[in-house]
Amino acid sequence: MNLTHLSKDTLVTVVNGQLPGPTIEVTDGDSVIIHVVNKSPYNVTIHWHGVKQRLNCWADGVPMITQCPILPNHNFTYRFNVTGQERTLWWHAHVPGLRATLHGAFIIRPRHGAGSYPFPKPHREVPIIIGEWWEMDLAQVATDLSNNSLFDFNSASTINGKLGDLYNCSGVAEDGFVLEVEPGKTYLLRLINAALLMEYYFKIAGHRFTVVASDANYVNPYDTDVIAIAPGETVDALLVADARPGKYYMVAFPYQAPKPSIQGPEYITRGMIQYSSGNGAPVLLSTSNGTTGEEEGGGPSADVPIAPEMPDHNDMVTSLYFRGNLTSLRRPQLPTLVDERLFITLALGSVCRRGRVCERGSTNDESITVATLNNVSFELPAAAETPLLESHYYNTGGVDVLRELPARPPKVFNFTDRDLIPYGPKEANLEPTSKATLARRFRHGAAVDVVFQSTSLMQSESNPMHLHGHDMFVLAQGLGIYDAAKDVARYNLVNPPVKNTVLVPSLGWAAVRFVADNPGVWFMHCHFEFHLSMGMAAVFIVEDGPTADTSLHPPPADFQTCGHDESLMLQ
Ligand code: C2O
User: Fold this and answer.
1) TM spans, by residue (predicted)?
2) Domain count, the chain
3) Cα of 112 to ligand 1 centre, how many Å?
C-alpha cells in the first residue's frame, strides 16, 4: 500500500493494510493457525519471534532454514501451539529489509486469566512498537546491504507507526501516538523494538515505570524512569497515571557508542500521554504556571506538553545498568553442569568478490565487508535447494556439508583495541574470511554456555543476539574483554533474566546459558538487520531426544517443497 508520511508518498509492503501490522492476541495453551497470503512482489516468510515452537520447528518461519520462501501470489499456513509462555512477543517477516514494515505485536495472555498476573491487573494494556520509517525501497536496502553498496540511507524513528512532532517536513509537524490515561489508573505498556538498526531509550516525562517482564519472561518488579530496548527485545512495564493531569511527551531516543555516523533529530520520535476523565474529555489544569514545556519539573501548562530529559546518545552505561538490574521473578531451571562452552567473537571481515583471491588490505572493488561469528560469515543455502530443516529431518545429507561453527575464534587478538576500528583506509585491518552455511550441532538436552565477545571491528556497534526456539539465561554482561578467571565469579546463577535476545554491549561481552532441548534447526543471529544481512548468523541444530515427546514432529501434511507449485497459486 501507499503510505504518506508528510513529505513523500512511499510504496510499502504491509499486512492487512496496517503499519504496524495487526496485533495477534492468544492465551497460553492456545493452538494458533495463521494463513499468510502473499500478495506482495517479494518472497516472504513470517517468524514468530520468541515463540518456542516446541518440537515444531516447521513453523519457525526462516527462509531456507525451516521452510521455502512464500513466493508472490502463493500462500502458506503456520500452525503452532503456545505453551508455557506469557506476555509480549512479536512477529515479523524474516526476509532482509522487509521486516521494517512487516511486523506486529504477539500478545500471550496467561492461561488462568488476570488472576494469575504476578502484579495487579492494569486498567489497560497498550502495545508500544518502536520502529523506523524508511523512504527508500526496503528490498533495495537489503540488496545494497548484502553487496556493500548502501552508502547513503535515511530512516526516521516511529512509535506505533507515527513519526511524531519532531519530524518536521515541509514545515508541518506530524501528530505522534497519543495514549489517553485516566488519573490514578495503571497501564501496562508492551514495548517492542521492531527497528532494523537502533537501540532506544524510552521515557515519559514526569512518570516512572515498573518493569515486570522482558521477552515474555517475568522479572522482579524493577522501578526506573528509563527503559533501554534493543532490536528484537520486548519490555512490559507498568505506568501509573499519578502525575498532575496534563500532557507529557513519551520519547524514543536512539543511542549508540561513539562512532562517526551519528544521528540527526529525525531519529528521535515522540508521542504523548494525555490525561482524560475517561469519557474522552481532556483533564487539564486551568492555568499555566509558566513552564516552557521543554524542561522536566514543575507542573504542565494547559497545552504545552512536558518533555523528558533523555540520556546522552552515546551513553552506554545507562543501558548496561538497566539490563544489569533485571532478574528473573520465577526461579529459573538453570542447569549447574555445563556440557559445552563456546566463545564467539562478533566482528567484521572481508571476502573477495566473485571468488577472486584478494590479500589483506586489498581495495574496495575487490573485497566486500561481511559480518562474522568466529571469523566466518553466514550465507543461506541457495533458494533452489532444500531447507536445512527438511534435509535434517529426512536425513538427506543436506546438512552434512555445513561448516562447523568453531568453539573459539581462530585467533586471539586484542578484541577491544580501538586502533583496529576499520574506518576508511583502516579497512585494511579487516581479517580475510570466507562465507559458509555455518552450523553447530548439539546433543539433545546439552547445557551450553556461550560467551559473545564484541570486538572493535564492529565499529562500536553493539549486537542484540537472538536465538530461535530457546530462551537463554543471561548470566552476566560486561565491558572490555571477557576474562573467565574473574568474570565467572560475576555470574548470576540464582535468578538470571531469561531472554530470547541478549544485548552484547559494544566493546564488551555477554555470557548466556541455554539448554538445547528443542530438536530442530534454529537460527541464531544478530537482530541488527545490517549485521544479519552481512552474515552475522549461524544455525544451531539440536538432535532428537530418546522419546517421541522429545523429538521433532513430522512436517505438517501440507508442508510445501521449494519452487513454483501451481496448486498453491492464488486465484
Ligand atoms: Cu526476530 Cu530471526 O528473528
Assistant:
1) none
2) 1
3) 29
Span from the CA of 293 to the centroid of ligand 1 (angstroms): 39
| Residue ranges lining ligand 1, Cβ < 6 Å | 47, 49, 92, 94, 232, 466, 468, 523, 525, 527
Domain presence at residue 206:
no
**ipTM summary value:** 0.99
Residues 395, 378: Cα–Cα separation, whole Å:
22
Give 101 Cα–ligand 1 centroid separation in angstroms. 14
Relative to the CA of 232, which ligand 1 atom is closest?
1
In a domain, 77, yes or no: no
- Encode pLDDT of 506-531 as tens digits: 999 999 999 999 999 999 999 999 89
Per-residue pLDDT, 294: 45
* Minimal-distance CA residue to ligand 1 atom 3: 49
Displacement of CA 375 from its chain's centroid (Å): 23
Domain-embedded: residue 504: yes
Q: Is the dihedral of CA 138, 139, 140, 142 positive or negative?
A: positive
CA-nearest residue, atom 1 of ligand 1: 49
Tens of pLDDT, residues 405-461: 999 999 887 888 877 665 554 455 788 888 999 999 999 999 999 999 999 887 778
Which numbered atom of ligand 1 lies nearest the CA of 523? 2
Q: Read off the C-alpha cell for 553.
A: 514432529
Measured in Å, residue 282 CA sits from the centre of ligand 1 at 40
Q: Tell me what pLDDT residue 68 has.
A: 93
Q: What is the C-alpha to C-alpha distance for residues 230 and 210, in angstroms, rounded to an integer? A: 18
The DSSP string of 481-494 is S--HHHHGGG---S
**% the chain with pLDDT above 90:** 65
Cα separation, 348 vs 156, in Å, equals 26
How close is the Cα of 305 to the center of ligand 1, in Å? 36
pLDDT of 333-391, one tens digit each? 999 999 999 999 999 888 887 655 566 555 556 778 889 999 999 998 776 688 999 99
- Grid coordinates 488462568 are at which residue? 112
- Full residue range of the structural domain in which residue 537 is found: 340-550
How many angstroms does the Cα of residue 502 sit away from the middle of ligand 1?
A: 12
Here the CATH number for the domain that contains residue 381 is 2.60.40.420
Confidence at residue 90, expressed as pLDDT on a 0 to 100 scale? 98
Mean pLDDT of the chain: 87
500 Cα to the center of ligand 1, angstroms? 9
How far, in Å, from the CA of 47 to the mean position of ligand 1? 7
Q: State which ligand 1 atom lies nearest to the alpha carbon of 90.
A: 1
Which atom belonging to ligand 1 lies closest to the Cα atom of 50? 1
Give the torsion through C-alpha atoms of 96, 99, 100, 106, to 10 deg.
-160
Q: Out of 191-205, 270-284, 400-414, 491-505, pick the least confident.
A: 270-284
Residue 393 in domain = yes
Can you tell me which atom of ligand 1 is nearest the CA of 99?
Answer: 1
Atom of ligand 1 nearest to the CA of 501: 1
How do strand 438-442 and strand 403-404 relate by DSSP bridges?
A: parallel
Global confidence as pTM = 0.93
